[in-house]
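User: Okay, second chain of the day. Same drill as before: sequence in, structure tokens out.
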Amino acid sequence: MKEWLNGSNIFEDGTCVNHNRIHPDYMQCIAYLLGAPNTFALAGMPTPEAAFFNDIIVYGALVEHKFSSPPHAKPGGTMYVRSPDGNFTADIYYPQGDDWGTGLRMHFAALDSIMSLFTKYGQKYHSEEWQKQHVKKVLEMQNRFPDRHTFEKDEFKSSWNEEWVASWSTFNYLTRWVAHNFKIVTTNESYATF
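Assistant: Same drill. Structure tokens below.
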């Protein structure tokens, strides 16, 4: 792999570069790994502890890493945004802008649920409160339209934007259902010995 890979797009501080920018949407993709208990619990198997590798680093970067402006976009601050009085909001700060659109929230809600329900860091990062804010924002967006679609034309530049919301809503629901109905067990044993 070293012959065709020119390095990594994630840094030691947990930030990730994709589309030539620091990209919160792609940092959120750690949910695909951290959501492993959904599959393993349904299969009646323990989740490999490796599934939680660097969870605190990437999620911590979303919640706590502060970006100065300049050089980053105004107003600066953390990607998960609190109000001036410290309250949780659904706002997401994109330090270098975004090419898809900055209206996406459901994937963050799913990651928040995973952190809250499957990891030991959910309480530290107030993941459940962030999840509530992100879901509330999606519902507010959907309530703007009689047919309850989510996005205005330029809020998410994708031909599959509503399917994307449905997919992450399902992921979020599954995470919460699994956490409620199963005891999540982890293991360091080899996969071959399960």
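The chain has a mean pLDDT of 94.

User: Thanks, on to the next one.
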